[in-house]
Write a structure and sequence with these properties.
The protein has 360 residues and is α/β, with parallel strands linked by helices. It contains 9 helices and 8 strands. It folds into 2 domains: 3-162, no CATH class; 181-359, no CATH class. The radius of gyration is 21 Å and the shape is globular.
Length: 360
């Protein structure tokens, strides 16, 4: 963390609410729960001098993390049950979902208990990785509070209150939101996470190494089952995942405000996976949105992210375009065997529909 934290009096006033509800789930003893809650609260107050936490709803720390996510009251009926990332590439340890309380969009932080235990190890005279990891996890999730707050102020009555009816738009809105939210959160919390970049780059290299192979297997399965909905659900995610992990890397780099860049190893992984241009285009899109964040006026401004995803999908044999009645025109092909041009498909994201396609 920055050395400025040593002189708290010189920092802006805290923005966290005076009362911060804590829910400490499945702790061994009430004493342990109270001790960690108090320590977390003190660091949240510190973090809130750097990050706007005025819309913090509360904090849940759970050893039954999956149950805590599933049971969180978000103030809106009919929402999809919250889950964490949990596969061979990513394991979720914290989330900051939006909730609605008395008509106001707020954010509730949910943390996986074992990963915040290190917050108590702040009195060591030697650097402590467990403490550093716990503090950064907390700061990153706190950053999501500001990210959501900023978006709600720019686009009121949208978060958790506006359903997207278009099948095609819903797909790319998910990519837009995932990439933007992680980029902005990483940028805001970078000062609390010096040394985290190596972990983010490792995660990016991990998904890059399997993206093409997994997309290819999903395309191969499509030729057997012929289900376009399933093709979108199985071909798209492995091609979009490197963009989300790249957003973490880019946000952290930009938040450090120095000449830090990605390593040669990561640049090579991008090249080998065919993602160099997508990474650079995503960087341009995210930085543009950040620079214009005080002048947002339309959610369509975030489509610059979705267009990078369209390019990534295109390169992986998947084309999704809007169609009549909020549907979508979808094409799947094998990039190694046939070019989109041979199928009569133009690479133009402005086109509302396309010929010779299968339509959902």
């Amino acid at each position: 963390m920055s050395d400025t934290s040593n002189d708290v009096d010189d920092l802006p006033p805290p923005t966290a609410p005076n009362s911060m509800p804590f829910s400490m789930r499945a702790f061994a003893t009430a004493e342990n729960a109270n001790r960690i809650a108090n320590r977390l609260a003190s660091y949240i107050r510190l973090i809130s001098r750097f990050i706007d936490l005025s819309r913090l709803d509360g904090v849940t720390v759970a050893y039954d993390y999956d149950a805590a996510l599933a049971e969180l009251d978000r103030g809106v009926e009919g929402l999809r049950t919250l889950t964490r990332s949990n596969d061979d590439q990513l394991i979720g340890i914290g989330r900051a979902p939006a909730v609605i309380r008395e008509g106001v969009v707020k954010v509730h932080i949910v943390l996986n208990g074992p990963y915040v235990e290190g917050i108590e190890k702040d009195d060591s005279s030697e650097p402590c990785e467990e403490f550093a990891s716990a503090l950064y996890l907390l700061a990153h999730e706190c950053a999501h509070v500001q990210v959501t707050t900023d978006k709600d102020r720019a686009f009121p009555n949208t978060i958790l209150q506006h359903a997207i009816s278009s099948y095609e738009k819903a797909i790319f809105t998910q990519v837009n939101e995932a990439c933007w939210e992680e980029y902005a959160a990483c940028r805001l919390s970078a000062i609390f996470g010096h040394g985290r970049l190596a972990q983010y780059e490792e995660g990016l290299r991990g998904v890059l190494s399997v993206a093409r192979e997994r997309a290819a297997k999903a395309r191969e399965a499509f030729w057997e089952h012929g289900d376009l909905n399933r093709a979108v659900a199985e071909v798209g995610p492995p091609l979009a995942q490197p963009l989300r992990l790249a957003a973490y890397v880019l946000g952290h780099i930009d938040g450090l405000s120095d000449d830090t860049t990605i390593t040669a190893e990561t640049r090579q992984a991008l090249a080998e996976a065919g993602y160099t241009d997508f990474f650079d285009d995503l960087a341009t899109a995210l930085r543009s949105l950040w620079n214009d964040r005080h002048d947002w006026n339309n959610l369509s401004q975030f489509d610059v992210i979705g267009n990078v995803a369209r390019d990534a999908f295109w390169s992986g044999g998947l084309l999704i375009r809007p169609a009549a009645n909020d549907g979508a025109t979808i094409h799947v092909w094998e990039p190694e065997e046939i070019t989109p041009a041979a199928l009569g498909l133009e690479r133009s994201w402005a086109t509302e529909d396309c010929e010779n396609g299968s339509e959902r």
